Amino acid sequence: MKYLLFIILLSLGNRLFAQTYNADNINKKAVAAYDKAMLQLRDGLIKDAIPLLGKAIEYDANYMDAYLSMAGVYGELKNYQKCVDYYELARSRDTAYFKYYDLPYSINLAALGRFNDALGAINEFLTIPNLNETSVRSGLYRKHCYEFAVDYAQKHPVSNYVFAPVNMGDSINSANAEYYPSFTIDDSTFVFTRRGEGIREDFMESKLQPNGIYSKAKLIEGSINVEPSKGAINISQDGEWLIFAGNFPGKGDGDFDLFISYNTPTGWSEPVNMGYNINTEFWESSPSLSPDKNALYFSSNRPGGYGGKDLYVSYRKPNGTWGPAENMGPLINTKGDELAPFIHADNQTLYYTSNGLPGYGGTDIYVTRKVNGQWTAPENLGYPINTVENEGSLFVASDGITAYYASDRADTRGELDLYKFQLRPETRPAQTLYVQGYVTDAVTKKSIPCAVELTDDSTQVAVTKLQTDETGFYFVTLPVGKNYTLTVNRKGYLFYSDVFQLKEKAADSTYIKNIQLQPIAVNSTVALKNIQFELNSYQLEPVSLIELDKLLQLMADNPALNIQISGHTDNIGKDADNLKLSENRAKAVAGYLIGKGIDAKRLTWKGYGAAKPLADNNTEEGRAKNRRTEFTIISM
Questions:
Q1: What is 166-427's CATH topology?
Q2: Could you report how far apart the first and last alpha carbons of the chain are, in Å?
Q3: Cα 631 from Cα 626, distance rounded (Å)
Q4: Cβ neighbours of residue 552 under 8 Å, at least 6 residues apart?
Q5: May I ask the CATH class of domain 431-519?
Q6: Per-residue pLDDT at 20
Q7: Are 247 and 229 in contact (CB under 8 A)?
Q8: What value does the mean pLDDT of the chain take?
Q9: Which CATH superfamily hosts domain 2-155?
Q10: Which residues of the chain does CATH 2.60.40.1120 include?
Q11: Parts of the chain belonging to CATH 2.120.10.30
């Protein structure tokens, strides 16, 4: 507590300095009021001490101890402005007596964002002769924090940004602590942890109502709340999984483990320990599941890391099991503690807390971004999101703007409350949209569990690989501003591909695509929807390789398969030219396959020009559909 620090400093200060201020000369009524205030503080009745300290100052306007104690009280209540005001009133009365209090004074200046002033105060503090080792260490630590803050402000000037956290209100917050907020992709379901009595922590749930307000939070139903000793909770973006930390006797490997519960027609399932590839006999907590449910980030204090608690990631295998957890390495982890990872819906922006990286003091929030498959060096989110206090878990909505976190600000209902605010633009993740649908058999209409892959057309790099559930349902979030090729593979079926022209679609929009897979059969025809050529040319564009490599895989997996490649054009231009162009394009596709090792005897190719249109050639949309490449199974 800041107040306890203040008491220590006060006693040390009275021993170390000869002052002009003399407590023996203070008005006795003022001393009596002050003594009563001290009793209130010792009993933890912090607010009750304020009027008594005010009386002490009223009785004697030069009562330094009363000013300094009032500053300590307001600092404890996080009313930093009044804290600083009282410190400055004390300093104006006796600079020599005040000098030692430059340390707590600097902390509260920094809490107001006055980092240059805080740096001046701490430099003044460090000039005091014969400071003990603890005071020097504390002073130098704060000095480094303030220097970081000043440098950060110079490098990241903020304009037109207002940090205004809004308390989520009585429907969510209570007199107890609330923390670890987590939302589904559409914000419809909101879960979080609430502190109970003793070791009990309960998982709460709230639903978004039509008026845009969240319903009164209630206990998540089912056995998930039976055990009292729990911690962080995370809901999958599709609302189908809950992953959380629990310390359940006889159900874990020791200390806190990670558990999973599934959303079923009858409610949340019995929690299941996530297994030895994730859990150890040591502490595991603060889980965050990637939007495609293929990566699980969490914190653990297991041996072999870089500090006290490190961040780890486990990847889900195609068979649904989780692979061995991997330490995220020294770029992310430090000698300190890394906690509360949160992977955003864009699947490429990770937020987490650390007390081992340069920052403002205590635990700060940092962000790292995945670029070309590698995480970038973590960046501090800066003031005022990070402060001299310890910052906790952060959740950023799919819009990339709205953020949620736990704090004990001045308007808290009690202890930690949940707040929402808008992120500063440069700290935001990519905005996202989401794609969902079902995969079924084109003949039987039955659901087909299978693999779904989305590839960035601009880079030809697969950005998401996921497995549908048992009903054939898939759900994926994607950054906006790009086009993607979707491909679906399942043994016994022709691969499916389609182009997702999402570059111009708005953030937070939904793209629904139900997919029907064709069983492999003679005379089956598949349109390759993203085979592209240079204008009036048969030179393949790089984006074409996404589908061509899937066709290559299909032929390699089915060595008896023989196909015909067909080229088609729209009706613009001369028929003879279109016929020649379509044949050359079909030949180019066949040539690519042959060049990759497919026996030429398994391939034929033919150009049809504009003879077989699929749509009206009088519209650009129709002509685009008619310009296509197809393959047909000839024999198998």
A1: Neuraminidase (2.120.10)
A2: 77
A3: 15
A4: 593, 596, 598
A5: mainly beta
A6: 62
A7: yes
A8: 89
A9: Tetratricopeptide repeat domain (1.25.40.10)
A10: 431-519
A11: 166-427
Q: Are 367 and 381 in contact (CB under 8 A)?
A: yes
Residue intervals in the chain for CATH 1.25.40.10:
2-155
- Residue that has been written with the tokens 């914190």 in this structure: 299
Q: Where are the beta strands (DSSP E) in 266-335?
A: 267-268, 272-273, 284-289, 295-300, 310-315, 326-327
Whether residue 390 contacts residue 376, with contact meaning beta carbons closer than 8 Å, is answered with no
Higher pLDDT, 500 or 1: 500
Q: How far apart are CA 395 and CA 516, in angstroms?
A: 36
**What is residue 430's DSSP assignment?**
-
The predicted model gives 446-451 an average pLDDT of 88
pLDDT digits 0-9 by tens, 530-560: 888 888 888 888 888 888 988 898 888 889 8
From the candidate CATH numbers 1.10.580.10, 1.10.150.650, 3.30.1330.60, 3.30.420.10, the one assigned to the domain spanning 520-636: 3.30.1330.60
How far apart CA 495 and CA 557 sit, in angstroms, is 11
Q: How far apart are alpha carbons 120 and 142 in whole angstroms? A: 11
Q: pLDDT tens digits for 232-243? A: 999 998 899 999
Convert the pLDDT of each residue in 324-367 to its tens digit.
Answer: 999 999 999 999 999 999 999 888 899 999 999 999 988 999 99
* pTM strictly above 0.70: yes
